[in-house]
Amino acid sequence: MKRELTSWFSPSLAKDMPIAAYGDYGFALLLVPTAAADYLEYERFQLLDTLAPYIDSGKLKVFSINSINNESWLNDNMLPEHKAIKHNQFNQYVSTEVIPFIKNKTSNETPIIICGASFGALHSMNLFLKFPHIIDGVIAMSGVYDLSEYTKGYWDEQVYYNSPMHYLPNLSDDWYLQNIRNSHHIHILSGSGDYEDPDASRKFAGVLYNKGINYELDIWGQDMKHDWPTWRAMLPYYIESRF
User: Fold this and answer.
1) What pLDDT shows up at residue 63?
2) What's the domain count of the chain?
3) For the sheet containing 216-219, what is the strand order?
4) Residue 19 sits in which domain range?
5) Among 140, 131, 133, 137, which residue's Cα sits nearest to residue 112?
6) Is the separation of the CB atoms in 157 and 145 below 8 Å?
7) What pTM did the predictor assign?
8) Taking the C-alpha atoms of 101, 102, 106 and 109 in order, what is their torsion angle to the nearest 10 degrees?
9) Given this model, what pLDDT does residue 220 score?
10) In angstroms, rounded to a whole number, what is the distance separating the alpha carbons of residues 115 and 30?
């Protein structure tokens, strides 16, 4: 499996941001890390090994980026309003730097599917909903789509606008809604085992339904807990069966 590591100084985040790329051809799968993890997390926990057959056959090319959660919502030494600012800078980094980088490494016509597990699922869904004209779909695994679950009681306008469970029910802009509805790949996955919250996925699926947005909700069994074996089973299954 071909592997390339790249880094550049991000104007959005004012720091060096590395990115890992795996493979040569196929649609682009953009991985967003869980919680406080980094761009090599999916490799360390062997999820890339489960995707290797699809990468090597040219079905997909994977890109994996760093999170900045330790500099935002998980930073107990930062003022909450500053956490929200950092979160918005991350959104800008993905939309104005990462997506053009992927297009440059693939083509302007290459579909981009964003994917994450746990906190990465919330970020992935949020980024897809904000930028449906440049991100073609989302695979969200074991997510909670209410950002207030991570803000320790803090609430402001920027938390609202980064919390899909809150802003999507009120979204009325036809441009956004039509671009979101055009996607054939909105996949919401959850296990039912330890530390999973399948009801969070069901509730968010209900929001999509009420907005006339097509989606797939897939709740796996009680043997599937909030951990890497679950995600190593889910993601290759969806790559194999849905793409």
Assistant:
1) 98
2) 1
3) 3-10, 15-22, 60-65, 27-32, 112-117, 137-141, 186-190, 216-219
4) 3-242
5) 137
6) no
7) 0.97
8) -110
9) 98
10) 6
Tell me which long-range contacts 44-51 makes (C-beta under 8 A, separation of at least 24).
45/228, 45/232, 46/228, 46/232, 47/228, 47/231, 47/232, 47/235, 48/1, 48/22, 50/232, 50/235, 50/236, 51/22, 51/235, 51/236, 51/239
Residue 163 CB-density burial (10 A; 0-12 exposed, 13-18 middle, 19+ buried): buried
Tokens of 47: 């999820």
Amino acid at 53: P
pLDDT of residue 36: 83
pLDDT of residue 162: 96
Residue with the two structure tokens 């590591």: 5
CATH of the domain at 141: 3.40.50.1820
Question: CA–CA separation, 87 vs 72, rounded Å?
Answer: 6
Which residues of the chain carry a pLDDT beneath 70? none
The helices-and-strands tally (H runs, E runs) of the chain is 10, 8
